[in-house]
Structure formats: C-alpha cells, structure tokens
Write a structure and sequence with these properties.
Chain lengths: 450, 556
C-alpha cells in the first residue's frame, strides 16, 4: 500500500493502517510490532487505542515511556479516554507524578510495583521499569517513543514482557552517550543504538508499519518534512492546502520582525536572517531577535484558524526551540526582560526548550534558533538530522527560523566526516543533506535583518 | 569545548604560552610508571616495528623487529616485550590488603559480610598518545588467542609461551583505558591536554612535541614558534628534529633511512641462506650488523619521544594530586585485582566481541564513571567548578544573611533556615530548583560533613542575590547542628546538579539475554562471538548473577 496514496482520504488511509497494527498486536505471529510514526501522526492516540483494545481483550498491560513527562502525559490521555480503566503510575521513590496524571479517579500512583498489582495497565519510565523485579512477566507491553530508547534499556526491561508494540518516530533524535562506544559499532546489540534498531536486527521477520498522515503538521510543512527527513516513508498532512491559517490582528510596523511574522502567517514558514558572523553559542543579537519575535507574535494578536475552529494564539501555544540548554536559558532571560511569561505555573507561558525536550510536543507557532547559526564549524551534534527535524516539526501553523546568514556555506565547508563502520547501516538522509533541503525551502521565505 | 576552555586557548595564543586548565592533577601518577613508546610499520597498523620501554628514564630498553613483515621476528619481539612487561605487570599482585564488604546471598537474599582481597597498588603504563593506546590494544587482539607450544593442540604456528598472556594483559589495559578517569594506561597527550590549554587546535595537540612546546617552550622561544619547530624542523639529512611520537613514523625517515636499512637486512639474510657452510659465520655477523643498524636508526627516532614522555611526567608531577584521585585509582586497583584473579583461575582469554549484556554493562559503567569524573573534578578543582559556574550550573558567593525558619507542617518543627547568598555568578536558579552544597576539603578530623540540599526561594540576577532554604544536612534536632548552617561572611558554593552518581540498573545474566537481543550468546540468532564461560561470569568472590554483575563492573 502506498501510504501517500492520494485517492484515499487521509482519515481512511490512517484508519486502514491502524486496523492492521491492532490486528498484528492482538494476533500477529511476531512477538514484536513496530510502528514508525512521523511527527504528529497520532502516535499517542494509537497507544491509547491499542491499550484499550488489549484491556478489552482481557490482557494486563505494561507501558514503557522514556521520560517522566511522557509517562504523565500518557496516563492523563489514557485516563481521559477511558475513565473506568484502572491505571497504575509507577514512579521513582523521590519522584512526584504531575497533577494532570493524578487528577483521575482511576489512576493509582506508587513507587512500588506490588501496590499496583490490581491495575490492568501500569505505566512507567524505562529507567524505573529496569528496577522492577520479582513479578510475573506481562503478556503485553507497549513501548512508547521507542526510537528514543537505548538498546541497553530494552535489554534490561525485555524480561518483563512476552510481546510488545514499539511506537516511535524514527526521524527524531537518536539516543546518545558521552562515552566511547566504537568497540561495539557494527554489533547488532551495540548498546548505544536505539532499541528499535536492535530489535529489528534480531527479529528480521518484523516489518515496521508506517502511519501515513500527520495530523499536526500543516499542508505547508508536511511536504518539506516528509521529503527532507522521511524520503523512504513519505507521509502527508491530514489537512489540505489553506485549511490552516493564521490571521494577524494588528498591522505590522514595517520592521523585519513583523515582516517575517506576516510571511509565516501567510506561508507557514519564515526565515529571519541576521548578518553573517561567528558568535558565541548564546549569540546575544540572535537571542534578542528571537525574544522580540515572540513578543510581537503576542502583541499582534494572532489567531489560528483550523479544522478545530478559530482560537487566539496565546503564550502557551508558542514554543521556542534551541540546540543547547544555555541558549534556551538565554532566550528565557531575554523573554522575561520583554515581559513575556516563561514560567507556566502562574498562567499561560511560552515554552522555551532544547530539541531533546521538545520531542513529542505540539504548538501553534514555533520560533527556532537555527542550530548552525553563527557557528564557525558544523559538528556531528549540530548536523544531526533529528535535531533539525524535531525543531522543524513542532508546529500546527507556522515556524519561524532565526539564523545568521552563511549556513549554506558553512555546510559546504563541513561535509560529514564520520567514519564509516562495517555493519552499521548508514543513516539516510544525513544531516548535511536534510539541512540543505530545509535551507533551500526557507530561502523562499527569507526576511533580512540589517 | 566549553567557554572557559575557549577563553584559555585564546589567552594561550595571546600569551604565546599554554594556560593552565586545572589547579590540581586529575589523574593518578604511579611512583614507578612503565613508559612505553611503540612504533608500527608503515601501512601495517598491527605490525610492531619497535618499542622503547622501562621504568627508569635513564635506562630505556629497546626491542625492534628488523623486518616487520617477518612473523617469526614479530613474535620474537613480542616474546621479548612480554619478558620486559609481564614481570612489571604481575609484580603488583604480590602485596594485597583485605577489604571488608557485604554481599547478597543468592539463596536467601541476606547481606553477608565478605572479605575481598585488593592489590595494594597497580601497574601504570604511559604511552605518548592515544594512537599508542590503540596500538597496544591491537597487539593484544592479535596475540591473546595465539596457541603456544605448551598447548595440547599447538597447531602449525605456535608462538613463544608468554605471548598470549601479554595479549590478555594488553587487552585488559586497553579496555580499562576506555573507562573515564582510569589511570592504568594513559596517553601523555591526553594527560597534558586535560591540564593545559594551548593556542592550537585539538588535532594539533595530538603531536606530543608540539604540545610540550606550548606548555614549556625552550628559553627564548614562544609557544607557537617552538611548536612549529617541533612539527617541521629538519636537519641536514632531511630528518625531523622531533620525530613523530608514533606509532606511525615519519615517511621521510621510512624512505631515506629505514627502508634502505631494512632492505640491506633482507639482503644479508638472503646471503646467509645462500652461504656455503664455510661462510656462514661471516654471513651471520653481517645479518647481526644490519639488524643493529635498523636498531640504531629506530633508537634515534624513539629517544626524543621517550624523553618527551618523561618531561611530561615531570610537568604533571609538579601539580598536587586532586583530593579524589586516590579514590578513582582504587577503581583501577580493583580492575587489576580482578584481572589477576581471572588469570589465576584459568579463565579463557577475553572474547573477540562482547555479548549484548557485557556490552551494556560496560557502557553503563563507563557512563557512571564519566559522571563521577566530571563531578569529582569539579569538587577537587576550583577551575573545573568555574566551568559549571560559567554555564549557570553552579554558583559561589558570600553569605549575606541567615534567618532562622522552621517547617511546622509535621509533628515536630524542623529547621529550614533561609540563607541569602550574594554572587556574581548567573545560575539558572529558578525558584523551586533544588541545589546542593559543596563543602570545602574535610577538616583535620577528616570527617566529611553530611550532604546538604537547599531549595531556591528567590533569585535576583540584577542584584546578584540568591535566597535559599536549607532543607537537609542539619541533624535531627529542632535546632541545626553547629557548623551545618553557613554564617554571614562565609564563602559558599552550590551546584544545580546532584553531587552523587546514580547507580546503574541491573541487567540480566548473559544466559538470559532476551529475544529482543537475539537470545543467549551462542543461540541461533546471536551474531558473532560465542563465549563459552566467558571471563566475566564468575570469580572466587561472586555470589550469584547480581553479585557477579556488580563485582565485574568494578573490575573492568
């Protein structure tokens, strides 16, 4: 089946794949089912649905996610979708689950697995599951964000289940380690690779399913993200051209920041380009421009028009993405200086975070500080395909990239030089190519800042 | 590269001299290190050409392979190397101490006291650069599976008896060198690079001569000029004054001097084979002469590097050791003790490939040690802590005010004093963030104070103040124990990261490798390297898989 089959409606195409996946989970011959999901393709919805169907079939189920916020989010979604389902939230002894997860009557939280024996579904992080012992294995498990999970974490938890559904986005950031792992390169069980690659290498009978429709990305973004980051598993947007729009309340002031906002509202993309320059990581000019863009987004009273209706773009619908934590901190400080809320506890606030932490999240408008902006070199870290992919695929309406000029030249000066290892499948597309593809597209939506 | 390192490098360019990156020495240095300078044949990474080694800087020992492609000569060389290295490596096994600990009984799960043997010291090999570490690993890989004449099935090409043993030691040392902070096999360039920043790139720092030139240039020369001299100055014969520190040799040396000398040696050996009986003695003398010629050439290019490594050791010894260096060295001693015990128990050599569980276990250990190293370096060295302060992950300052306050939510009030710290740092200290107090070096009585946590109450970057609420480390009474709460005027330092390293989660026994990873080693779908028994599956003090896992991690 061609997932991009234009004749089927997006909903029908997605439903067919979902039905196939659920059939494989409930009665497939392989012990593992892998689902590759592009950004916003309904991964969480699938997890919730699979969980409910398994429980309906009388199974007990464990769910593995990678971070505490993912677990809390999942528990919240599960309990919202099925209020009468007893869900256990297993957490670490010094951890406190988020209130959103605990507000449901059906949810029980405990640091001890023994307390959760009655729950039909138990959800926790891979790190916590690794410590669980003296329990009967579950017959079914769901591993969420499986491409973010490392092979060694799967090795430690696989004893807990017989069969598993692995769901994740192959285009996002690969797991990483700060120590040398060259000696295991090429081994199918290299502990530093992603759990899914290890699983597929050892179980060649498993054929990954692909979710064919991104419900998050607008028409203007799905094509680019699919081409640049998922060339072999194309997907399309659930909405058509012009279905999603941004309306701008106040007229622009004629400056470049307002011009790029107008461009992004119009086309879904905007590139605000600063003059070329080598800078420190927390480039004060670029950081200031990012903050000012966010300030103007709020000041100009944007409204998001979509299949869900029309809603104002408030602070909590805007995110800023960076490559490094210190950049995020600098942007937060600059936003605070401009009176933009960045702390969510008193009220709606702009999210400012690194690509790693924005994975799996969704906003109306994102402002991205380009990972290569102002750099004198392009390291493997900054070229990593997943980093750019995450940053360029968090938005429902528009994405504004702030960058210094000269990135294309920088890329040309730094072709990928990672050594090729025997037995390691080359990741394609490489970051170099994906970066060029995105840049070429952004160039059409460029506003220069002098 | 951190901002501070970048600044240090810029400063080094400006001053034309390397700048310190550390105020203390962060690696253990043995009183009697074994310096090894290995050379490999051009184009044949695994073919040793020569090695200069020893524990006495004035009396290096030299072993060479006059014809590096001749396997008999290669293994004769490795046997000679084993003869020199093994007594040194094995010598540290004699003096041991008894360490008390506890171990879980596999049957009952009870914790039982055990006494383990720990070698009092461990060997330390120092090579010029990381390529040297890699080369020793290659030698270990190519020799540890060799059969010897002592084996029941010796095969057609037995090697001298101690060669495989040397291979197992080299393999162990190379593996251990992957563990961050370990000091059993050290590369001098890495050691110097940790402690000094030069005005050149990391790549250029791989040249030991150039690196030393920046750190300690000869009188009257600047760092940049001295480094240029070290890299490229040649004598009248076109040879480098400062030959590369190996294992690769200078191509010009290979072409003009070494190549012709090896060719003469080959010719002499051919002549010996063809010599009639009466001429044999003369032909043999000629072979010896040509071999000595090769030896003399190699000695000339090795000696400068040998001296540089010792020069580097002098520079490093001038730095006082960090307070926690000895603690990390104890890890090396455990590693050494464990390997010695595995050899004594007659276990087979390390497998070609790690199985899934062993690989995961080693990765977990390395990550934990990396975290521990970063932490301990920061605690040992204000310059290392400065990097964290600069990145907003820590802050230091002076206590301005202390206000007694209590948590009255429980049955008895608990002390929760508010401490105002004035700091010039700009930490990412959002209200509610947990911070950890860094204590100065322990006092005369040697007792380390209890860990202390605090919570950020207010942070005013403009004013440069942080208000903290101390939440622990003040004893169990209503009033804090004396000395646990800082007083106005005290210098304090807090970090936003935890000051202890988290334990790694348990992994299954290799025999229980799950289906997701191909099942147990040796089963149908397991890819390379079956490991019968394996060197990591037991030792004299292991009790059950979990204990074995824990113990192995310490030994790696």
């Amino acid at each position: 089946m061609n997932p991009a089959d234009p004749t089927a409606s997006p909903g029908a195409a997605a439903d067919r794949v979902t039905a196939e996946i659920l059939a494989a989970v409930l009665s497939g011959t392989e012990r593992g089912v892998v689902v590759d999901s592009p950004p916003g393709a309904g991964k969480s919805t699938l997890v919730v649905r699979a969980a409910r169907e398994l429980v309906a079939a009388g199974e007990r189920l464990m769910i593995v996610a990678q971070t505490n916020s993912q677990v809390d989010d999942l528990v919240d979604r599960l309990a919202t979708a099925a209020p009468d389902l007893p869900v256990g939230r297993l957490h670490s002894s010094d951890g406190r689950p988020a209130p959103e997860a605990l507000r449901h009557a059906g949810v029980t939280a405990s640091p001890r697995i023994g307390d959760l024996a009655e729950q039909q579904v138990v959800v926790s992080t891979a790190a916590k599951w690794q410590w669980v012992k003296d329990v009967d294995p579950w017959r079914h498990a769901i591993v969420d964000e499986a491409y973010q999970m490392r092979s060694d974490a799967l090795l430690a938890v696989a004893r807990l289940f017989e069969r598993a559904l692995f769901v994740g986005d192959p285009g996002q950031l690969d797991p990483f380690t700060v120590v040398g792992t060259d000696q295991w390169a090429g081994l199918s069980w290299d502990p530093s690779r992603s759990a899914v690659t290890a699983l597929l290498d050892h179980n060649p009978g498993i054929r990954p399913h692909n979710l064919p429709v991104s419900w998050r990305l607008p028409y203007s973004a799905a094509g680019l993200v699919s081409r640049a980051f998922y060339p072999f598993t194309p997907f399309r947007s659930g909405t058509g051209e012009g279905d999603r729009r941004l309306t701008v309340g106040a007229a622009g002031d004629g400056g470049p920041v307002d011009a790029v906002i107008d461009e992004a509202a119009e086309s879904g993309w905007g590139l605000l380009e600063l003059p070329a320059r080598h800078t420190v990581r927390t480039d004060p000019e670029a950081v200031h421009v990012v903050a000012r863009t966010v300030r103007r987004l709020l000041d100009r009273g944007l409204a998001a028009v979509s299949e869900k209706g029309t809603a104002p773009v408030t602070a909590d619908r805007i995110a800023v993405g960076t490559a490094h934590r210190d950049q995020a901190a600098a942007v937060r400080a600059a936003l605070t200086g401009l009176g933009v809320p960045v702390d969510g506890s008193p009220g709606p606030a702009v999210t400012v975070d690194t690509a790693n932490r924005l994975q799996g999240r969704e906003y109306d408008v994102t402002v991205v500080l380009h990972p290569l902006s102002g750099r004198p070199d392009a390291t493997a870290f900054h070229l990593e395909t997943g980093r750019l992919c995450v940053l360029a695929s968090r938005h429902r309406h528009a994405c504004i990239v702030v960058a210094r000029a000269g990135i294309a030249e920088l890329l040309d000066e730094h072709p990928s030089t990672e050594p090729v290892q025997l037995g390691v499948s080359v990741k394609f597309p490489d970051g170099w190519e994906a970066n060029h593809a995105v840049l070429a597209h952004l160039a059409e939506h460029r506003v220069g800042l002098r | 590269m951190s901002l501070l390192t970048t600044l240090a490098r810029l400063e080094a360019v400006h001053q034309d001299r390397a700048q310190p990156l550390a105020t203390v020495r962060h690696r253990h240095l043995s009183d009697r290190p074994m310096v090894v300078v290995p050379l490999a044949a051009a184009g044949e990474d695994g073919a040793p050409l020569a090695a200069m080694l020893g524990t006495d800087r004035d009396a290096p020992r030299l072993h060479v392979v006059p014809q590096p492609l001749d396997r008999d000569q290669r293994f004769a060389f490795l046997a000679a190397l084993a003869g020199d290295l093994l007594p040194y490596l094995e010598g540290y096994g004699e003096e041991t101490e008894q360490v008390e600990g506890t171990e879980k009984d596999p049957e009952t799960g009870e914790r039982l006291p055990v006494v383990r043997e720990l070698c009092a010291d461990a060997p330390q090999l120092v090579v010029p650069n990381s390529a040297g570490v890699h080369h020793l690993g290659l030698l270990g890989r190519s020799t540890r599976f060799r059969r010897t004449a002592d084996d029941a099935d010796a095969g057609p090409y037995p090697v001298p008896s101690r060669v495989p043993l040397l291979g197992r030691w080299l393999t162990h040392l190379r593996e251990r060198a992957e563990v961050p902070g370990s000091s059993m096999l050290l590369a001098m360039t890495a050691l110097l690079g940790r402690h000094w920043a030069t005005g050149q790139s990391h790549l250029e720092d791989q040249h030991l001569g150039a690196l030393l030139a920046w750190i300690a240039p000869p009188p009257g020369l600047g760092g940049a000029e001295a480094a240029r001299y070290a890299e490229s100055a040649r004598d009248g014969r076109g040879q480098l004054h400062c030959p590369p520190a190996g294992p690769a040799t200078d191509p010009r040396f290979d072409e003009k001097l070494l190549g012709p000398a090896v060719a003469r040696h080959d010719a002499a050996r051919a002549a010996l084979r063809a010599a009639p009986p009466g001429e044999a003695a003369r032909a043999e003398a000629h072979v010896r002469r040509t071999a000595d010629e090769v030896r003399g050439l190699l000695e000339q290019v090795l000696r400068p590097t040998w001296d540089q490594v010792w020069r580097g050791l002098d520079l490093l010894r001038a730095l006082p050791p960090g307070a926690r260096v000895a603690e990390r060295w104890e890890g090396d001693r455990w590693s050494y003790t464990g390997h010695r015990e595995r050899l004594a128990a007659g276990e087979p050599p390390q497998p070609r490939f790690d199985d899934a569980v062993t690989a995961a276990r080693k990765l977990a250990q390395r990550e934990r040690e990396q975290a521990r190293l970063d932490l301990q370096e920061a605690l040992d060295d204000p310059l290392a802590m400065a990097e964290h302060r600069l990145s907003g992950e820590a802050f230091a300052g002076t206590v301005e005010a202390v206000e007694a306050a209590y948590d009255t939510s429980g049955r008895t009030p608990k002390p929760r004093p508010l401490v105002t710290v004035r700091t010039g740092d700009r930490p990412h200290a959002d209200p509610g963030r947990e911070v950890h107090r860094v204590w100065g070096p322990p006092g005369e009585d040697g007792a380390a104070p209890a860990a202390q946590k605090a919570e950020v109450v207010r942070h005013d970057p403009a004013e440069g103040t942080v208000v903290l609420r101390l939440t622990s480390g003040m004893g169990r009474r209503r009033e804090p124990e004396p000395g646990t709460v800082p007083q106005p005027g005290d210098r304090v330092c807090f970090t936003l990261f935890e000051l202890s390293v988290r334990q790694a989660a348990p992994l299954p026994d290799p025999q229980n490798t799950p289906w997701t990873h191909g099942g147990p080693p040796g089963s149908a779908s397991a890819v390379p390297g079956p490991r019968p028994g394996g060197p990591h599956t037991g030792g004299p003090h292991t009790g059950g898989p979990a204990a074995a896992a824990a113990a192995d991690e310490e030994w790696e």
